[in-house]
Amino acid sequence: MEGLLLVITIVAKIIVIVIALLLSVAYLTLLERKVIGFMQTRIGPNRVGPLGLAQPFADVIKLLGKEIIVPTASNRYLFVFAPVISIGTALAGWAVIPFDKTTVLANINAGVLYSLAMSSLGVYGILIAGWASNSKYAMFGALRAAAQSISYEIAMGFALVGVMMAASSLNFQTIIEAQRGGIWHWYWLPLFPLFMVYWISGIAETNRAPFDVAEGETEIVAGFHVEYSGTTFALFFLAEYASMILISALIAILFLGGWLSPFEGIPLLSSLFAFVPGSAWLLAKTGFFIFCYLWIRATFPRYRYDQIMHLGWKVLIPVTIVWIFVISMAVHFNVGPWFAVR
Question: I need a labelling partner for 245 at 20 to 30 A (CA). Which of 98, 274, 281, 289 fits?
Answer without folding.
Answer: 274
